[in-house]
Amino acid sequence: MVSVTENRSVALQDNEALFVSVIVGNGQLGGTYIEVSRGPDKIVVAKAADITNLFVGTGKTLRGFALLVRTAVVDVNPHTDWTIITHRIKRGNAAETNESFTKEADTQKPGSDGIVLYTITYTFN
Fold first, then answer.
1. What is the pTM of this model?
2. Which is the most buried residue in 65, 96, 108, 119, by most CB within 10 A?
């Protein structure tokens, strides 16, 4: 398995609602797990193959928390080893922001299982 880990910050006003969508591209398969946490306290928000316009909370309720978005992508497309996921972040009435992450599954390497695990953590300011 290949891993990608990144941290991002999102500016979110107290009264702004946060919605998240996760898209797996390149004809690959994937599943996503989303949690909100602060210290040892964790709340599972979603576990699904398709996540579209998931309401996560408002700036006031999310401040001080971390949003963990973990997606496992399985390379099933025989035409490419590249995987891509896109997070669509919608903040209140603002335009959507697309955050894209790519990584090669490298299925030609001995012992490769063709899985890429993306772990992206968002904090709010």
1. 0.93
2. 65
- Burial (CB < 10 A; 0-12, 13-18, 19+), residue 100, is exposed
β-pairing, 2-10 with 66-74?
unpaired
Q: What is the mean pLDDT of each run of 10 residues along the chain (125 residues)?
A: 95 95 96 96 95 96 96 93 95 89 86 92 94
111 sits in the region (left: phi over 0; alpha: psi -120 to 50; else beta) called left
What does 28-85 look like in DSSP terms, one character per residue?
-EEEEEEEEEETTEEEEEEEES-EEEEEEEEHHHHTT-EEEEEEEEE---TT--EEEE
Tokens 């946060």, residue? 18
> What token pair was written down for 64?
């001080």
